[in-house]
Amino acid sequence: MNQFFNHSRFNLLVVKHWADNKNRYGLSVLAFMGLLILWFLLTILTGDADPIGIDVQLASYFVLLFGAGTFYASQYFSDLGSKTKGSNFLQVPASTFEKILCSLLYNIVLFFVAFTAAFYLVDILMVSLTNYFLDSDETVRKASVANVFSLMNMKFSDGSNVNLLLVYFLVQSVFLLGSVYFEKFSFIKTIISGFVVCFIVFFLIYFLYEFLPKGEYSNAFLTSYRVHAGDNIHVIQLPGWLARLVWYLVMYTIAPFLWIVTYYRLKEKQV
Predict the structure, then answer these.
(1) Which residues contact 164 (CB under 8 A, 6 or more apart)?
(2) Cβ 259 vs Cβ 173: under 8 Å
(3) At 123, is the pLDDT very low, low, confident or very high (cuts 50, 70, 90)?
(4) 161 has which bridge partners?
(5) Are 96 and 113 in contact (CB under 8 A)?
(6) pLDDT tens across 255-265, in order?
(7) What is the largest CA-CA distance in the chain?
(8) How far apart are CA 56 and CA 140, in angstroms?
(9) DSSP result, 157-195
(10) Rounded CA gap, 61 and 36, in Å?
């Protein structure tokens, strides 16, 4: 039998994880839908001309997606924080790759699908109720269901967009890695570590900018970035291909890289 990946063994692992956590997952979905209903009721009661507008729906979706998704990812390997549960988890007859693949299936695919389905179930219900009860009020704008995928690509600069879905998967991958590295309080420790890393990266970029050539050039192959330093404004010139390469690396390779790091970190615990 293949020790790296076996289809039948992986299916059994997926089924086992669901059997062990289905009650918790079911209650979590119901609790999430209940809180979302209360939140939408609050916005309806406090709203004037647009009680449950598109902006409210979009903000609610993405804030809750990032919040709930990262918390769920940070708790996925929480059994490793307990000696008894950790030993049982490590002794499950499945390879490290299968365990990581199972975690990605539940965190990246199934959580996103279940979250979006639950959100839209509540959203459509609340929009319909709002239009039904406020239909006779001409001062209130008729509500409509928001398309959350319309904000998946947000304009970041003149030459690039930010895909919020990719950013979400990236951030969730960070917290999944944190659930393996930190045995206790992984959610809080991952947030603190993330702030420290972002702080360091910010200063590295700032000092890098200070040593880059500055000036104004009319070259179609250069990308300009303005940096304010006191009363002076420096125009930093970067090759356009380099800027695009860095952008694509950040958007498309960091999350898979974090999955690989998570795999090797979990493999160390397996050994």
Answers:
(1) 62, 151, 152, 153, 154
(2) yes
(3) very high
(4) 155
(5) no
(6) 999 999 999 99
(7) 69
(8) 15
(9) ETTEEEEHHHHHHHHHHHHHHHHHH-SSSHHHHHHHHHH
(10) 10
